[in-house]
Amino acid sequence: MAEHPLARRDMGRRVAALLCLAWAGSAWAVAPAGTSAPAAAPGALAEPPALLLPVQGISASALRDTFGDGRDGGQRGHEAIDILAPTGTPVLAADDGRIVKLFLSQPGGITVYQFDPSGRLAYYYAHLERYADGLAEGQAVRRGSVIGYVGATGNARPDAPHLHFAIFRLGPEKQWWKGEPVNPFTYLGGKPP
């Protein structure tokens, strides 16, 4: 029995569709380790990827969710989590990205602002003892790069060195100093009690 020409064309379309799906799946499968999730659709809220815990030697089980805790006698909420560690412990870039601002502030002390690869999220590292040697604004960093060291600068208690780590969704202006706070706890692997 002879094959109908429409059946051959339909089979060709099916094969082409399967090849496209296989190619798309393999493109995702070979994405380099440490890269962020694909860019979100325009207008969608930026969601952080699973991040590297930014304090060397600290496990996710040691994290305490301090986001929203009262500060200054309940005058404001805490828009970050504090990760306790000894002074001088290396602070690591939580994601790939770019250093946009090295800043000394009264409350945060020695700080680093980093944008994620899409430029839609800012990571804020505060109370550092010092920056990593050679760290500079505009520098590209990879997930896991040492960017500084845990300290107690700014308004941190000297007897409680820690990293104050925050995530902000940036507006279209890409202003490193403001954005919508996002609780980092679960993105760092924290599990609610």
Would you summarize the structure shown here?
This protein has 193 residues and is of the alpha+beta class. Helix content is 13%, strand content 29%.
Salient structural properties:
193 residues, 11 strands, nine-stranded antiparallel sheet, two-stranded antiparallel ribbon
Structural account:
- This protein is 13% helix and 29% strand.
- The protein is an alpha+beta fold.
- Strands 3, 4, 5, 6, 7, 8, 9, 10 and 11 form a nine-stranded antiparallel β-sheet that branches.
Number of strands: 11
Mean pLDDT: 79
Low-confidence region ranges: 4-41
Measured distance between first and last alpha carbons:
68 Å
- Rounded to an integer in angstroms, the radius of gyration calculated over CA atoms is 22 Å
Order of helices and strands: HEEEEEEEEEEE
Give a short account of the largest sheet. Answer: 9 strands, antiparallel
Counting DSSP H or I runs of 4 or more residues, the number of helices is 1
In percent, how helical is the residue content? 10-25%
Structural class category = alpha+beta
* Portion in strands: 25-35%
The shape, in one word, is globular
